[in-house]
Amino acid sequence: MHLFTLLPLPYSLGVLTLAYIQNFCFTSSTTSPVKVCILQNSFQPGFVAEGDYIIGGIFPLHYNQEMPDLNCTYKPPPVNHRFDPRAFRWAQTMRLAVEEINENPELLPNHTLGYKIFDSCAYPLTGQRAAIAVLNGINEDGAPMCSGASPLLAIIGESGSAQSIVVSRILQPFQIPMISYFSSCACFTDRIQYPTFFRVIPNDDYQVREQNKHLLVRFNWTWVGVVRGDHEYGRFAVQGLLRELQGTKVCVAYQEMIPLLYNQQRALEIMQVGREKPCSNVIKLHVKYTEGEMTPFLRDYMTQNITGIQWVASEAWVTASVFTRKEYYPYLGGTIGFGIRTGYISRLSKYLERVNPQRYPNNPLVQELWEALYGCRPSLSSASQLPLCSGQESVLEQHSAYLNTSSPRVAYNTYKAVYAIAHSLHNLLMCQPGNGPFENKSCAQSDNVLPWQYYLQEVKFIIAGDEVNFDLKGDSVPYYDIINWQRGTSGNIEFVSVGLFDGTNLCLPICLYGRWPLQVPVSVCSASCLPGFRKAVRHGEPVCCFDCVPCDSGKISNQINCTFCPEDFWSNKDRTICIPKKVEFLAYDSLGIALTVISVVGACLTIAVFAVFFYHRKTAIVRVNNSELSFFTLFALTLCFLCSLVFIGEPTFWSCMLRHTAFSITFSLCISCILGKTLVVLAAFSATRPGKNIMKWLGPKQQRAIIFSCTMVQVVICAAWLIHARPYPTRNTKYERSKIILECSVGSSLAFWCVLGYIGLQACLCFVLAFLARKLPGNFNEAKFITFSMLIFCAVWLAFIPAYISSPGNYTDAVESFAILASSFGLLFCLFAPKCYIILLKPEKNTKQHLMGKEKK
User: Fold this and answer.
1) What is the maximum alpha-carbon separation in the chain?
2) Each residue's pLDDT tens digit, 752-778
3) What strand order describes the sheet that includes 582-584?
4) pTM for the whole thing?
5) 212-337+481-507 has which fold?
6) Fold category of 41-206+408-475 in CATH
7) Where are the domains of the chain?
């Protein structure tokens, strides 16, 4: 059944038949003539509120969906869609407006408004289903046969023009008006095709309020002359202009006034002032009386043969036909003029913040809002796989897609549309016979509001300081065009509309100077600074007059000011762009490779000594000096050489923890071995004295215990360090601002100095004991070598402390690595070089008698 075949039917029957078109399909069997009606689907509203009169709302609450096949033979599958919090805000604005109207005792007294809000999914077909659903109700119980008109007053919708075309044509047979809040297609001005279509947003042929400062800034006219007439109009116009130009980059080069009684001498003086300001090529002219002021002034202006001036006209003369003659074009060609108009909803922000899953536990749209804002589902009933959340989360400012109420446009249009319906219905219900809009000034019947859109056509009210009404085409108050004076085909001046202004964005769809030879004039006191330079205002002159000075290091210019680069960036040589800072650390460059080679060579030498000792382990020099302790010491020294490698390369979480702990534990192990050897030397020579038997207390087990216990103290300190405040990689940008130094923060300075102090304590104790045993008899006094090794060790690390503190950047790691290598080489050569010399070059001295100094002369 075609929709328009319902037109002759009564209103209620037509609507009911539409319900069957939407919700039912007729199927027949070849074996039975009986037709069975089966409910195939329903279209649920997003929000419903009961009232004496119902307003429908259609909003694109979802978008980007793939529409299913709707052939009325099966229930369509679920669609893939995405929730739109911005459109949800529009729907909430409609609900807020209805609630405000119902609470207002002066608007629709003793009557209430209700609403049914549906989702169009930003798709014409779904918008059609929403329109039919709002007409009929959710099911057949919601759309009973009725004798009077439907309580549905109007529909607020739709956002897209394509959806509005479909919805408007569905509503047209029933004369139900539709007020769009976002459809701007100029096609809706055709009253034959869309007789019941209204909108509170202007069509594409109009834009909103123009302001002088926006136009001047748009063309970079920063050095402007102002000429006005001697009257209140000119005075207030200039005052408003100066007030609007405050805080902008536009300056007024001069202000002059044309006398009310025109004086040629005064006019010539004004023109001379303009000549003295050669850079000011734009004149803003505010005059009210075209013939009395403008015409004689322009005659004298033309006689002076002044050209190249860009005139900015006031609305009083921008379309004055007296200036269309061709002789004016060389002097006034390119003149531009402009015209004017947005909203505030006081309760909208708090109203939106009140919407949450706890307040609407059964509303899937609110649950989808939460999923879109927070990435979680507030209810187990949701089909989403997102994680659960409480539903008590606060709506934050970053949710601007939903909570942006600072300057509402579409939401404000929705707000005005609801109030337009309410005021129209109020006028209908309060209409007195003899003052109505119909024939003989009659009123519509309050119980049959079918033709009530005539009241909507005549509505006129003020809301938030803005006047709302509709013209004969259903459009709201039109906005101003931007007019440009261009040469016509006959040489005359034509007033060409070159753009629109909506109060926020200047839109010039047609190139202002593309149709004639003139170029956009330049009117500046000082030319814009080149990239890498900033403005320096000249003392005693307007801010538009300035010098250009280069930016400092680390800053780039936006041709106005110099701004610091982000923390990880630095300015290039020309100060034009920010480039990533150079990242420095102890890498495998010349210094890093040198330290690596030294470390590997030291480890190899230690292993070589280990091999020599192991091969000659049965000789006297190895046995006398306690081979087990020597092997432990060589093993520890190998680790000391290798731990310096951890300081080379980019710092990471693990390398930072390993650096100091590995170094401190290996050195503690090494010094513990040397300490044990020192104690053994002292005990061995003390045992030769009568009554002394100390060696029984320093056997192999006791020696191992000493090494283990001394090392474990350092291990405990390091473990506490890692647990309490472990080292971590950090980016140092304070030492040198042009570089980023990757280094390891020690985490706890106390722990760092504790591990160094413990190693120093061990070394000092070992040095003292070895020094006491330096004069013991024998040709090979181990205590002397231990004394020298500890002396070198302590000297290296005492020199390390000030060098470590004062070293810049990546050299800090190099200093510490060097100290490790230097002390390791000191221990290796002092302790083992003399022994290797005897083992390899003087084997005849590798006897017990020689070592003890008892060989025969």
Assistant:
1) 153
2) 888 888 988 888 888 888 777 666 655
3) 582-584, 739-745, 728-732
4) 0.43
5) Rossmann fold (3.40.50)
6) Rossmann fold (3.40.50)
7) 41-206+408-475, 212-337+481-507, 533-580, 630-826
